């Protein structure tokens, strides 16, 4: 029997699995129009079965969010770039950030900084790594 998450993925065809306790991740999801209805949002900390499934596929969620579009899976900088391509910015700063991240090269170069900021934020909040 398929889980509710598997059923919703089948229906919408698009899922973003991210760290719901990370302020940077939550901001990215909300600020750039990546909301329910356009894709299924999955907080990895609330769904350890998803963390285990993705780790078996080689995607560590502490190393980056995951975007699944049908049978395609994007992780880390690739997921951010694909989400940026699909996103909608509110205001010039948000649109500028989406433009910046929509480039493969710029997303790849920027992603290590985004990961470092995420780690610092989580450490400051006393939040540990995502565990399956």
UniProtKB/TrEMBL annotation:
What the entry lists under InterPro entries is as follows: DCC1-like (IPR007263)
Q: Which GO terms describe its molecular function?
A: protein-disulfide reductase activity
Report the superkingdom from the record.
Answer: Bacteria
Protein name as it appears in the record: DUF393 domain-containing protein
Native organism: Halomonas sp. H10-59
